[in-house]
């Protein structure tokens, strides 16, 4: 899977993952694509530029 | 004929104050050098052009919609070659081909909104809502032809269904992030964030607006993006999510869906669109 990273949209100490797709499509800078896990979903994780990894947001599990 | 005869004939065209009747007393067109046009007739509605000491030239109006254009030497009547762009509206992915005569494009695009989060079937929590989806980003850009690779892919962010309703004891479900809209590698704006899920007694939070700070400026391209309005939503381009519960599904373009309470799925979002104006 591919994650679309948007550096103009800060999240945590990194950037927003604005979209997750099976295949990339053309986007304009500063947007860029990185590989991600099949389970990653847009806006449920963020991109950390310090180690170039996608990390999940903390999740609440109460019902 | 004798001079006396000629003078008497001329005198027939002179009035009592000694003024010559130009309509009858002259037998040639008055030359330009003497203040005349040098022409016997002037075509109706024609535009007059200077021609040195020779008779004036004219340019006919010719075809409807023509404009007067300099060809570097003189003026001609011809079809307009600029000012009216070729406009195409896209609501689905497409391939855009760059014409060799293209001078510039202006692009207006909206990304898809995020859909809303759902509520739960737990009766004790039936008033707690999921969050509304954020609006899709809005961008307008201008690019000179030299800055545009071609052909390129047009992507229009697609709409999504809202989060499905949850069950007691588990969080409800968030919406889905709206899709990005892109004019190839030239302009892009991101979709609205998904509304988050209702979780226990805590309502879901609103999805973030897409496309924030989507601004580019280079010598050959420029664009600006709009951030989210935060007031009560209206049905327009790229506005924040519906508030539900009656009208939970987004309408228009780039609108987020409402978050819902109780056993109901979140509101669906609306997709993006793109207007491309080509200037030749």
Polypeptide structure, described:
- The complex is a heterodimer of chains A (63) and B (280).
- Chain A has 63 residues and is mostly beta strands.
- Chain A has one domain.
- Chain A is 0% helix and 48% strand.
- Chain A is built from no helices and 5 strands.
- Chain A has strands spanning 2-11, 14-21, 32-35, 45-48, 53-56.
- In chain A, strands 3-1-2-4-5 form a 5-stranded antiparallel β-sheet, with no helix packed on it.
- In chain A, strand 1 (2-11) and strand 2 form a beta hairpin.
- Chain A is globular and about 30 Å long.
- The termini of chain A are far apart.
- Chain B has 280 residues and is mostly beta strands.
- Chain B has 2 domains: 3-78, no CATH class; 83-280, no CATH class.
- Chain B is built from 2 helices and 14 strands.
- In chain B, strands 5-14-7-8-13-12 form a 6-stranded antiparallel β-sheet, with no helix packed on it. A 4-stranded antiparallel β-sheet of chain B has the order 6-9-10-11, with no helix packed on it.
- The longest helix of chain B is centred in the first third of the chain and has 9 residues, at 3-11.
- Residues 227-238 of chain B have low confidence and may be disordered.
- The A-B interface holds A 4, 6, 8-9, 16, 18-19, 25-29, 31, 41-44, 60-63 and B 93, 114, 120, 122, 125, 152-153, 155, 166-171, 174, 176-177, 179-180, 182-188, 190-191, 193-194, 199-200, 202, 207-208, 210, 212-216.
């Amino acid at each position: 899977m591919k994650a679309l990273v948007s550096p103009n949209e800060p999240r945590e100490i990194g950037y927003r993952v604005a979209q997750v797709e099976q295949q990339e499509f053309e986007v304009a800078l500063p947007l860029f694509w990185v590989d991600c896990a099949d389970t990653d979903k847009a806006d449920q994780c963020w991109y950390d530029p310090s180690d170039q990894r996608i990390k999940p947001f903390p999740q609440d599990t109460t019902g | 004929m004798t001079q006396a005869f000629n003078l008497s004939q001329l005198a027939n065209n002179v009035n009592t104050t000694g003024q010559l009747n130009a309509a009858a007393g002259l037998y040639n067109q008055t030359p330009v050098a003497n203040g005349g046009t040098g022409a016997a007739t002037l075509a109706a509605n024609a535009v007059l052009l200077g021609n040195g000491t020779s008779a004036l030239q004219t340019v006919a109006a010719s075809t409807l919609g023509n404009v007067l254009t300099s060809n570097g030497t003189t003026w001609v009547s011809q079809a307009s070659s600029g000012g009216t762009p070729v406009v195409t509206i896209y609501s689905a992915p497409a391939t855009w081909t760059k014409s060799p005569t293209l001078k510039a494009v202006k692009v207006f695009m909206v990304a898809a909104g995020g859909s809303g989060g759902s509520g739960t079937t737990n009766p004790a929590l039936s008033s707690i809502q999921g969050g509304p989806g954020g609006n899709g980003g809005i961008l307008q850009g201008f690019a000179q032809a030299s800055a545009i690779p071609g052909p390129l892919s047009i992507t229009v962010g697609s709409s999504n269904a809202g989060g499905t309703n949850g069950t007691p004891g588990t969080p409800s479900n968030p919406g889905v992030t709206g899709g990005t809209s892109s004019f190839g590698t030239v302009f892009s704006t991101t979709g609205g964030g998904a509304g988050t899920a209702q979780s226990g007694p805590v309502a879901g939070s609103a999805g973030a607006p897409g496309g924030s700070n989507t601004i580019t400026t280079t010598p050959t391209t420029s664009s600006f993006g709009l951030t989210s309005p935060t007031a009560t939503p209206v049905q327009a381009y790229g506005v924040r999510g519906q508030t539900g519960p009656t009208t939970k599904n987004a309408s228009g373009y780039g609108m987020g869906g409402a978050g819902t309470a109780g056993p109901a799925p979140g509101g669906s979002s609306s997709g993006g669109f793109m207007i491309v104006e080509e200037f030749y």
